[in-house]
Amino acid sequence: MKKVGIVGDGYTAAELLRLLAGHDGLQVTAILSTENIGRRIDRLYPQLTGYYDLICEPSDAKSLIGRCDGVFLALPHGLSVPVALQMLEAGIKCVDLGADFRLKDPALYEKYYEKVHEAPEMLSQAVYGLTELYRDQIKQADLVANPGCYPTGAIMPLAPLLKAGVIENEGIIIDSKSGVSGAGRTLKEASHFCEVNEGIHAYGVGTHRLGPEIAQELSLAGEQPVEMVFTPHLVPMNRCILTTAYARLQNGVAASQVREVLEAAYGPEPFVQVLPEGVMPHTKWVYGSNQLHIGTYVDEASRRVILISALDNLTKGASGQALQNMNLLLGFDETTGLKMLGVHP
Asked: In the annotation, is 149 catalytic?
């Protein structure tokens, strides 16, 4: 039995607790908070009743030393660095669900997150936590930068095709639509019921901070810079993300190679399903699961490739992927605690 702690008490922390309740090898020993100190976590999230009687503790990272083998940092951007430093110095493995270690270029972090990175030397130490792409590196890591939800849905279908030279690295268009839980539990005008219900809108057009994260990983996959556009949208549903990506086939590449490459890349993967030809993903099929579904279409006349992915933004897009990574860090089978299907209908 290994022991883990959670720093933060928002939606991703609650999702971690839901998943960890079904994990036979990990015990949650502490959850740290700033706004709910002294409250039982099952009073904050009643769905956890009968599984946890943890009391939210003050956010003193040192209190986790000696009590944890691994720590999940479920914090807003800009808050993870000092906690991660203390944990790593104490020999505690960390998975950061925030954005503090995802971008390798500190200048990009400063530009998009409007904050100077406190420990830029750590950026090269952190392993980007797309498990299916960086599994071997994650097993050897101490610090994992859990990917953003939008990047997970965009990178997974595109990266193998760029790596294989099947699609062009220019003119990539990524259109994503997310449920409101991606905005977190903190009250914001933009996520009020009356602002979201019965409507859909784009936001962060051309400026969204997750765009550079997507570009970074796609450029690494294709071994050259990509030229892409990313536009996110907010839709009136609780969870999940549907992403549609458009690209062009390289000259001389057959349309059939798109499916062949994706099936070869993800055929053995437990959490990525390349759907049968003609079947396109639906967010309801992955709701509450760590699954990511991919559908493909190639227009032979225009050489246009259309890739559609669906994932649950709180599970495969956040806490499920974080647990997948922590499993690898602590020596468990990566599927432990994650063998559930989507909830549908």
From this structure: yes
